[in-house]
Here is the input.
Amino acid sequence: MKQMLTLEESANYNRKILNYIHQASETGVYDIRGLGAKRRVPSLDDLVFLTASLSRYPLEGYREKCVTKTVLGTRFAKKPIELEMPITIAGMSFGSLSANVKEALGRAATHMGISTTTGDGGMTPEERNSSKTLVYQCLPSRYGFNPDDVRKADAIEIVVGQGAKPGGGGMLLGLKVSERVARMRTLPPGIDQRSACRHPDWTGPDDLTIKIQELREITDWKVPIYIKFGATRVREDVKLAIKAGADVIVVDGMQGGTAATQEVFIEHAGIPTLPAIRLAVEALEEMDMLGKVQLVVSGGIRTGADVAKALALGADAVAIGQGVLMSLGCNTPHYIDADGRPVDVTEEYQALGTAPGYCHHCQTGLCPVGVTTQHPLLEQRMQPEWGARRLINYLTTLKMELTTIARACGKSNVHHLEREDLVALTVEAAAMAKRPLAGTNWIPGA
Amino acid sequence: MSETFDLKTTTVRAINEHLHGLAPDATGVYEILNPNGSHNIAVGVDAPVEINIRGHAGYFTAGMNKQARVTVYGNVGWSVAENMMSGRVHVKGFASQCAGASGHGGLLVIDGDASSRCGISMKGIDIVVGGSIGHMSAFMAQAGRLVVLGDAGKGLGDSLYEAVIYVRGKIHGLGADARVEDLSEEDRTQIGELLEQAGLSARPAEFTRVASARTLYHWNPTSPQVSVL
Here is the structure.
């Protein structure tokens, strides 16, 4: 008689955990990977809009004027950043991304009237030349950071941390460190390039105040200074950033992406974007700085609905990284060749141990669709013109979705979206966003 | 030409704006009086001018300097000559923390002592310290040379990349992946040249060379090390 199998999976020791333990036991090292948190966390998906009906008066869906113009950096800078819509391309490094990708980002952003952002490794001519409005990051590593590029920047973003790895610094594995990348970073090719977890020339917020003044002096107080950090102790960090003199604060939730970091950080450090927005807005309100210091949020912003919800919660703009890369082909089964034909690369995904739709192997530099690579052949798979066209479509869609929701809420300006327009679908989201659970007046913890 | 600014009657901002307006090939001498510990004096200058700061200066003095020869007749606060690209910064007194942080080029001379993290993250700058340096100096230093005539604090050269450190006095402890190496003839020549440029004197043979053991160049020594590029 055949024995019946008993296949009862353990919740505590499920296949994912078993695989983790077995792999750790074999290798003795932790996993490093790209992109952001994959686990389900309370998110903007858990909110819905209370659009107009009898008690609110809507605007016509896609016809009536709905303002999207956004101004960042009005506190001290002589030349604030003006965007055609409340979206900016998040900071991503040349090194993690190819020069072609950086150019595509710049072209699309310029077409859409928004800004792009450099990353670790400095500013490339490709992105400066293609980006009308470019935010220059000042990171702990200071790779490639120099005064000439400071003066070319339209804004400077001091990066304290990142949502994918708050407090953890970063890494560009040697496999991606080409001659050009190495030269820009003043390090030998092929070695792992550690991005430090703290700045070399200041430590606490009092020093940061003087550092900001230094950058303002060097730029003759023309450009806005942003401060970006990963979402952990958001209320305190926002207040300290305000006190230090920031024009703009960028809060990056735990769903934010990275080119490469320890998975233990990606999945277990920081808080989700949803509560981070609420905490940041409350801090601005408590400091009487709402509207005076602008708030940009990032980390898992993917759709026009996400943008609208972030704005309704009080953000002035959002920054998008992973969504932008996916627009350029990340996780698609093919790339488009010079003749416009799709070339299937499923086998190359398999060689990396993954498949389209599941890939997070940015750290290898072997991106099958040529996005997160420095490989001279692979990077040719993502041509700037094609990529820019895709990204323009994506950003246009986001803008259309954002404005159609705003109109349905009766707003002629997307910045008029407000908290009162939102309710929560889950108890967790209600508590984190401090919005009532749908159909109730209940805000847990309020 | 020569101009004098008195920080009793003008502001750091006005001085910096004036210096930023100089042509990249401008010459001249600029005297800055009564700095009284002001921060950010002469930051972002890009001209081969001479700037003399007559007194103690605060944080980030001569930060991001290019071309200029800046002399501080006093002590400086944190991060003097941070991210310097070229030129020369000379501190006649003592320097606080992070002197020459992330400097890409040029020469920083400190006649007295420099506090902790001197030369942190240096990327090609040369630093000569007449006195001693504090703990964690040359942390993650990538390129350039740090010459110290006195002692070095604990954690010297932690996580070093390709920068080289020369210490004449006692080393109170090395950081992760830093090691003492034999002093070569080329090292002695380089030390002699740097001392001469700094206007300081010592016997090159008395110095100890510290460089990276390069065991941390890959986070996981068992992972593939061969670049696919």
